[in-house]
Design the sequence.
């Protein structure tokens, strides 16, 4: 029989070379597993519905919706990454060191692609609201696709270089058996902080402040009835774009709120000094945003609700369903 001390080890047969397990009551442990597993399943399911909806219905093949599709793909990937966070609940990593590094690289890549996509969404809304007359020519499907591909490609290249030492020597920086640590050079931490937090979040805030100012000025003009006849059509377009901007603004604000705690911890302690369990805790807040995005769509996007009904009722299996008119356009809210 194992002694109480051995029972707290991740690998009791390895003795002192094993990491210690976080001991919780059985009820608490079961509850945590149920909650995280439910979040994982919901995240995968809801984002899969977004992916199917935008990919299937041709009426939704617009620049803005393709950006939402990119965000849904990253959120869908996050749903699977929750499994790795569940494995770290007791502080023991039971998979190989290679899988530990894989988890870190994929998580960072997906999170970075999400940040880049949100920046592209902010740019899209800025052009739509502040320069509506030239929106159709400036923001095209091809340009949106190029932006998405570059966003993902840059994320893959950057984090492959950032985790180079870990990829070449997986498990090299683990302090004990059952540990899951990755080493990030200090200069890489600083570059990562600027590229994935300070710079993009500054751009997002500046662009949405500008959108807000335009919205306020238009509201004042409408209240004072200062409307020029020649501008009535552009005012109508702008009003529609402003509704879309407000809806996407909720997505952006929630994204900022969920991402900030992780970088606050990183700034106060440094990425390299965060234990696997602490890292998993703050990371869960970031990953939880991937569940919130499709939930926001359900409440704010009528087109998404209509598409979900078509998908769940299997109407998409019918011939010609790609061209089905479900009374949905990108900016009808």
Sequence:
């Amino acid at each position: 029989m194992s002694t109480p001390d051995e029972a707290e080890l991740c690998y009791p047969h390895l003795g002192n070379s094993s990491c210690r397990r976080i001991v919780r009551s059985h009820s608490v442990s079961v509850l945590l597993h149920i909650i995280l597993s439910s979040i994982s399943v919901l995240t995968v399911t809801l984002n899969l519905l977004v992916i199917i909806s935008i990919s299937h219905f041709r009426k939704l093949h617009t620049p803005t919706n393709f950006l939402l599709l990119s965000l849904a793909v990253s959120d869908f990937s996050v749903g699977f990454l929750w499994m790795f966070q569940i494995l770290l609940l007791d502080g023991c990593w039971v998979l190989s060191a290679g899988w530990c590094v894989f988890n870190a690289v994929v998580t960072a890549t997906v999170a970075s692609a999400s940040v880049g996509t949100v920046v592209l969404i902010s740019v899209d809304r800025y052009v739509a609201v502040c320069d509506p007359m030239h929106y159709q020519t400036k923001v095209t499907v091809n340009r949106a696709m190029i932006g998405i591909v570059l966003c993902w490609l840059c994320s893959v290249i950057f984090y492959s270089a950032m985790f180079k030492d870990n990829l070449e020597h997986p498990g090299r920086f683990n302090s004990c058996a059952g540990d899951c640590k990755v080493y990030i050079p200090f200069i890489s931490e600083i570059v990562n902080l600027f590229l994935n937090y300070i710079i993009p979040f500054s751009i997002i805030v500046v662009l949405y402040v500008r959108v807000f100012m335009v919205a306020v000025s238009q509201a004042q003009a409408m209240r004072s009835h200062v409307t020029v006849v020649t501008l009535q059509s552009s005012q109508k377009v702008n009003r529609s774009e402003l509704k879309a901007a407000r809806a996407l603004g909720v997505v952006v604000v929630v994204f900022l709120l969920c991402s900030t705690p992780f970088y606050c911890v990183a700034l106060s302690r440094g990425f390299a000094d965060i234990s696997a369990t602490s890292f998993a805790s703050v990371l869960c807040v970031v990953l939880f945003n991937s569940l919130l995005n499709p939930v926001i769509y359900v409440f704010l996007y009528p087109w998404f609700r209509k598409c979900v009904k078509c998908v769940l009722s299997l109407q998409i299996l019918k011939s010609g369903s790609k061209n089905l008119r479900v009374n949905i356009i990108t900016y009808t809210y």
